[in-house]
Amino acid sequence: MNDSLSASAVESRPGHGRFHRFLLRHVLMSEYLVLYVCILYFFAIWPFVPEMATASTAANILSAMLPLLVVAIGQTIVLIIAGIDLSVTAVIAMASVMGASVMTGDGGYLGNTVLAIPGGLVTFLAVGAIVGLVNGLCITRLSMPPFIVTLTAMMFLAGAALWFTSAHTETSSIANLPAGFVAIGGGSTGGIPNALWIALATGIAVHLLLSRTVFGQWLYAIGHNRQAAYISGVPVDRVIVWAFVLCGILAALSSILYTGRLETGTPVLGKRILLDIIGAAVIGGTSLFGGKGKVVWTVFGVLLLSMINASLDLIGLGHDFAVGVKGAVILFAAVIDAARQRVLARQ
Predict the structure, then answer these.
(1) What angle, rounded to 10 degrees, do the helices at 274-284 and 55-80 form?
(2) pLDDT score recorded for residue 312
(3) What is the pTM of this model?
(4) Domain coordinates of the chain in residue numbers?
């Protein structure tokens, strides 16, 4: 009898193993993997940080993730074509001080006029578009690697933002911004933050762009195989340039939200969030190899990083420790991405 039980147990193990492999593959390839991780993280940290379950903490997480989500969506577009944009944080800073210099009531170019806010908003977006255009042209016309181009742009703009601020004010930032502008990033309509409406509109617009337009199909085609896309008639260089322009514009839009919330233009705005921007997209499932990415995945990635930031702040751990934790999470996401690519290659 014992022999028969042992035999049946042995026979059942292969099927049991196949089930576990199937379950692991299903979870690994799921579009909602990071959402599952968010839920698990919440219940894992809750006993140690009960404040995570409060409405005020949820509001703080939402407030922190909205500007980050906007710029991370722009980074997602660039990652889909197997590129990367390291200049987005410097764009946020440069747009912040240049836009603020137009609007400020302390001697701004259009300060205390009816054109102050419209002129400031145009300045924000123009900075992002111009930087994105220059990045894209350097990559396509000069055949330079995106990493080098955008790293150089980041260094140049970071210094330029500091110089520009010192040339326009004796302080370290440009304040006295119009109340109407401040309300964009820090105000609300009907009890709902204005930043939420902007982030929601941005997410929907980019989702439709990626999923319902020929341009979106071109982005994925370039990410999968640039040479094959070129042979198929895709205007590769033009699409790449536009991808970087869109990334720059969304970084500038994020700068509007950050600047409005802080009520001041500062040359160090966004300096510490580059890891969060790229990490949110990668954690969400956007492939570092190109050809894969969705807005909703980036939403999940931003949510996870915002939850990690909030919980570590409540625990009282320092910035350096938080960076280490987020670096480990991003590394894990990169490993998962590589594992996914291997699974797809076997299919």
Answers:
(1) 80
(2) 85
(3) 0.89
(4) 30-346
